[in-house]
Automatic annotation (TrEMBL):
The keyword Oxidoreductase applies. The keyword Oxidoreductase applies. Keywords: CBS domain, Oxidoreductase. It comes from Thermobacillus xylanilyticus. GO terms for molecular function: IMP dehydrogenase activity. Residues 9-65, 73-132 form the CBS domain. It comes from the Bacteria. Gene3D superfamilies: CBS-domain (3.10.580.10). Coiled coil: none annotated. Its EC number is 1.1.1.205. It holds the Pfam family CBS. This is Inosine-5 -monophosphate dehydrogenase IMP dehydrogenase ylbB.
Amino acid sequence: MAKTVKEIMSTNPVTATTQDNIYECAVLMKQHDIGFVPIVEGRKLVGVVTDRDLVIRGYAEKHSGSTSVTEVMTKDIRTVPPSMTVDECARLMADNQIRRLPVVDNGELVGIVSIGDLAIREIFVNEAGDALSAISEHDHREPSAVH
């Protein structure tokens, strides 16, 4: 039986809400040493903010720290279900040069799967290695709608 995303994902991710501002999001990233914060309403995923979003869409556009995260968050989010196999997830990440994916079940955020989860757990090492190589070769300009 193939391993599923549920078996390797990080659970209880650090999140922010649409009521938070970009400064609060940046503080969360610093406190938890992360670069990716899902934005939720209750448990429903409505967007994500990356450290890159804060810089490119926030501060480089001269938004103040009090600007709502909704101004900089990515709304068109690629997600995966917890039932997806790890190899399918690795291929999706490699093909789309995605480092982190929210795991959503019935519209609710249940976890995050990252390229590191694939590599650290040594599951499907070839796919994880291929995904990491493909992402590393990318010129570091992630599409704004996919993180």
